[in-house]
Amino acid sequence: MTVVDNAVVEREPLKHVQVREYVRDLLGDSTPGTPAPSERELVQKFGVARMTVRQAMDALVAEGLLERIPGRGTFVAKPRNQVGRLLSYTAEMQRRGLLAESQTILARREQAGPGVARALDLTEGDAVIHWKRLRRADGSPMCVEDAYLNEVLLPGFLQSGMPTSLYHSLAMRGMRPTWAEDSVTADLPTHEEAQALEIAPGTPVLRVSRRAVAGDKVVEVSRSVYRADRFTLYVQLSDD
Amino acid sequence: MTVVDNAVVEREPLKHVQVREYVRDLLGDSTPGTPAPSERELVQKFGVARMTVRQAMDALVAEGLLERIPGRGTFVAKPRNQVGRLLSYTAEMQRRGLLAESQTILARREQAGPGVARALDLTEGDAVIHWKRLRRADGSPMCVEDAYLNEVLLPGFLQSGMPTSLYHSLAMRGMRPTWAEDSVTADLPTHEEAQALEIAPGTPVLRVSRRAVAGDKVVEVSRSVYRADRFTLYVQLSDD
DNA sequence: TAGTGGTCTAGACCACGAA
DNA sequence: TCGTGGTCTAGACCACTAA
To answer: Nucleotides on strand C with an atom closer than 7 A to protein CB?
Structure first.
């Protein structure tokens, strides 16, 4: 079932989409507070009804790019605090002003055991990539990450993908996680973990289990052990 | 600067709000998949333009109550996974199938010290409510919570608000937190904490600091210590 | 006073799904 | 075929802000 010659019908974008994308391009990287064109200006410019312009602007307001102030106008909004966004280890450390490094402890193809298979939505025995790394920040150990990847989704990953960031490699394959669930608890490290993290036994650590999803496919499950003296997790909660 | 007699103008709710609340009441606790009235039905019922009805429905779709299916209709949506929502301790335990109880250790009016004042957006010496509780789940200790509340926003709180849930009491005063930031780390308990939580010294705990905001006011800052053997934190991350 | 966003009307045509 | 939501029009009046 391959797409052979999906006769692409060139269709005019919907008007509210045209207006929306025009405004997005216009203000894409503007400073917060920059005024957007007024709704009536856009009505003139596109020869369109005001409700149509409002539909376009509504979308941009909903996604947080714009902010309306009655009686004054519409402006580029301050980017909201984005703690709680899905970041790679590298990006996460960058956000904290630390230099991220990784050191591979183990990287090989394996057959999924029952637990990993279930977590990755596979059947036992399917091929998975097992990748274990010691992660450093500003030179000192920060965490040990033990990850399993869905090999079916990432052919040739072990050969090509190793040197760069995991999430970057996934992005290149169109498998960048869009969504993840973490569960977090406190624990004591094993002897090996304590040694790798260069901490005394009996020093508490944070254990984070992650299940990362791209589209509707589970691409990664991992267990990480963080040095609690170096790492605090930030979470944002909203009421919805 | 007290509110003396804020002449309350009884004003007719906006039409799209009337429609929205009518539909919300109608479908409040319905099973996912229950059909909502069609837009044209609501136009008839309220004698209102279709754009007005759409504005009402848009809001309910945006907040996740409804789901539109073109050509079929509008239906009650499946509640999305709501890990990562802002829940009170009571609601959080309920979600986990546990019975929440609380035992007040300390509850009094104090003057804000420098740290608490800054966290609550107050000036040092302003009145705050200091409320420390041992929280249980299914009878056994789960966490010790040490909270500071902005007294200015909660007049008479100490007299009236104590017995019930904190978030419920805040809701009754229109100060239900809409937003919060948590920071989470692993640590060892103090002797007092270990005793209160009924755990051995040297058993790791989760420390959670929270800053809870209602509208644009900080209403609560707290530090909680959770038994890590009983409590795992769940976090959802999205890419945005 | 002029301009802004917020609300609202009374229509219209379209694509899609179900019967 | 008929009902649904999706899009769109060409106006209108309001409350608010800034000059």
So the answer is: 3-12, 15-18
Asked if residue A8 belongs to a domain, the reply is no
Please tell me whether residues A111 and A201 are part of one structural domain: yes
Which residue has the least CA–C1' distance to nucleotide D2?
A: B71
Sign of the torsion angle spanned by Cα atoms B117, B123, B124, B130? negative
Any idea what DSSP says for residue A86? -
CATH code at position B179: 3.40.1410.10
pLDDT of residue B84: 63
Cβ atoms A102, A67 nearer than 8 A: no
Q: What percent of chain B has pLDDT over 90?
A: 47
Nearest to A146 by CA among A81, A68, A83, A208: A208
Q: Kindly report, residue by residue over A131-149, the tens digit of the pLDDT.
A: 999 999 999 999 999 999 9
Q: Which residues in chain B have Cβ-Cβ distances shorter than 8 Å to A65? A: none
Residue B139 domain-assigned?
yes
Model pLDDT, residue A186: 96
Residue pair B56/B20 in contact (Cβ under 8 Å)? The answer is yes
Residues in chain B within 8 Å Cβ distance of A184: 184, 206, 232-235
In angstroms, how far is D5 C1' from A16 CA?
17
Q: Does A96 lie in the same domain as A59?
A: no
A-B contacts at Cβ under 8 angstroms: 122
- Within 8 A of A205 by CB-CB distance, chain B residues are 186, 204
Range of the domain at A122: 89-227
CB A226 within 8 A of CB A143: yes
| Other Cβ atoms closer than 10 A to A32 | 10
Residue A183, domain member (yes or no): yes
- pLDDT number for residue B31: 86
Q: Tell me: do A142 and A27 sit in the same domain.
A: no
A197 assigned to some structural domain: yes
Place B147 in a pLDDT band, splitting at 50, 70 and 90.
Answer: very high
Q: A125: alpha, beta or left, given left = phi > 0 and alpha = psi -120 to 50? A: left
Which residues of A make CB contacts under 8 Å with B?
51, 58, 62, 81-87, 176-188, 202, 204-206, 228, 231-240
Q: Number of structural domains, chain B?
A: 2
Query: Pairing relation of β-strands B73-76 and B205-214?
Result: unpaired
Residue A180, pLDDT > 50, answer: yes
**Could you read off the pLDDT of B76-101 as tens digits, one per residue?**
988 765 556 677 888 889 889 899 99
**Residue whose Cα is closest to the C1' of D16:** A71
Q: Contact A82/B236, CB-based, under 8 Å?
A: no
